[in-house]
Write a structure and sequence with these properties.
Mean pLDDT: 92
Order of helices and strands: HHHHHHHHHHEHHEEEHEHHHEEHEHEHH
Low-confidence stretches: 16-20
Number of domains: 2
Strand content: 5-15%
Structural class: alpha+beta
Radius of gyration: 28 Å
Largest sheet: 5 strands, mixed
Shape: globular
Oligomer: single chain
Helix content: 40-55%
CATH class of the largest domain: Alpha Beta
CATH architecture of the largest domain: 3-Layer(aba) Sandwich
CATH superfamily of the largest domain: Malonyl-CoA decarboxylase, catalytic domain
Number of strands: 9
Strand order of the largest sheet: 1-2-3-4-5
Length: 444
């Protein structure tokens, strides 16, 4: 017997609809629902309770002490909650706790009417107050807890992988970044030297967080903390034993052109009486939750001042930096025949055309390529934004697998000329990357 046409069409429609990806329900829709969908973590009842708990933290009728106690209760729940339940809490904080649009509209109209009058300044303050969301007050209540700042930084770090796939979380992420920019202002940070005699737990964190040149052993880390080296980190009083960012420095007699001798565990310490140059060879951010909060430029300034006081003979401050985006850019930009010849680039003899070509393309990448008015390469963007200039390209300077994968082994020196930092920043703001003559000479 033939299957009835109506049944065939019905099954087809059912299959078609089930194959389509369902649009996630907003938390508002879920709060007013009765049943939980299969792809949702909390049931509507649980979600309503979670929202009630969050609102209780900033209830205007409770004291700061009671609000703090309620915040602690939510933190305790969060610590033991499943990841999917944590994500629902993020969504509640992101999609709710927004500024009252009517109050914002009213304050905006009052400010517009006051422009040009004696009431303008006061109206502007009232307008800014109206735009402050209850979400910010929730974060402030959490932060008042002794472990609250650590809790929030870890929460934002946990959120990062989910932001691209779920734009609903962006409001919370942006709010947290704004708050952290205030809480972690460089005025609140302490510059501290890290040595071999520092607590073992702190030295272990250097090993864990090192992001540029992996630390291979205790002997390796001891070498990086030797007498001819300096390591400094920024610390926040609410995270006292956690470096937020740290920089590793080698004191040398001249600008280094290879990372190999700097990481040589058997090399004798350099003679500090002859040291003329400070080489910043590794800068590592440690907290994913503080992404977007910039204090690296302040770190370098403070370290330069500190080194100058300790070693008045130092005349040069430069980096030996990776070029992490070079090879990917070359693969999209350079001719195929050159790409093939560069597969074993570090073995190309000096004077060969293909070697000169790679240096020329690298010089163009660092000295000309911009995106939105800023250097294309992330490391270049950081140092040039701080006022440095592209000083020199170094062949086969990083023969490690990571160095070959990123940049065919090339590394670059950025020079911090303390008398020209502002000039270099101004040049970059006009879309012109500061470069040394040696870099310009390499252009194809």
């Amino acid at each position: 017997m033939n299957t009835p046409q109506w049944l065939t069409e019905g099954v087809s429609r059912l299959r078609s609809s089930s194959s389509k990806k369902l649009v996630p329900r907003s938390t508002d829709e879920r709060l007013h629902a009765t049943l939980r969908h299969d792809d949702e973590a909390m049931s509507p009842r649980m979600l309503r309770q979670a929202l009630k708990d969050l609102k209780g933290i900033v209830d205007p009728m409770v004291s700061e002490v009671e609000g703090g106690r309620r915040a602690q209760t939510v933190m305790d729940w969060y610590t033991s909650a499943e990841p999917s339940h944590r994500r629902d809490l993020w969504l509640l904080m992101s999609e709710h706790f927004m500024a009252d649009p009517q109050q914002v509209k009213k304050a905006q109209a009052q400010y517009a009417a006051a422009v040009g009058t004696a009431d303008e300044a006061a109206a502007e303050v009232l307008f800014r107050r109206a735009t402050v969301s209850p979400r910010r007050r929730v974060l402030q209540r959490f932060s008042a807890n002794p472990d609250g700042v650590r809790f929030l930084v870890d929460m934002r770090a946990e959120m990062q992988p989910h932001l691209k796939g779920d734009k609903r979380l962006l409001a919370l992420d942006v709010e947290m970044e704004y708050m952290f920019s205030t809480w972690f202002d460089v005025g609140f940070l302490e510059l501290r030297r890290i040595t071999w005699d520092s607590p073992a737990s702190l030295v272990e964190k250097l090993i864990r967080y090192e992001a540029v040149h992996d630390i291979r052993s205790w002997t390796d880390v001891k070498n990086r903390l030797d007498s001819d080296r300096r390591c400094y980190g920024f610390f926040h009083p609410r995270l006292p034993e956690e470096p937020l960012i740290f920089v590793e420095v080698a004191l040398t007699n001249g600008i280094a052109d290879s990372i190999t001798p700097l990481l040589d565990e058997t090399a004798a310490p350099a003679d500090l009486d002859r040291a003329t140059t400070a080489i910043f060879y590794s800068i590592s951010n440690t907290q994913t939750g503080l992404r977007g909060v910039s204090f690296g430029d302040s770190l370098i300034k403070r370290v330069v001042e500190t080194l100058h006081q300790e070693f008045p003979r130092l005349k040069q401050f430069a980096t030996l930096s990776p070029i992490p985006g070079l090879r990917a850019w070359l693969n999209k930009t350079a001719p195929a025949d050159l790409l093939k010849s560069w597969e074993q680039a570090h073995e190309l003899p000096e004077g060969l055309d293909d070697r000169r070509a790679l240096l020329g393309w690298a010089a163009r990448y660092l000295g000309q390529e911009l995106i939105d008015g800023k250097p294309l390469d992330a490391v270049a963007r950081f140092h040039l934004g701080n006022g440095a200039r592209v000083e020199r390209l170094n062949w086969a300077a990083d023969p490690s697998p990571k160095g070959l994968k990123q940049s065919h082994g090339l590394m670059v020196n950025y020079l911090y000329d303390l008398k020209r930092l502002d000039k270099h920043r101004a040049s970059l703001a006009q879309g012109k990357i500061p470069i040394a003559a040696a870099i310009k000479d390499l252009y194809l």
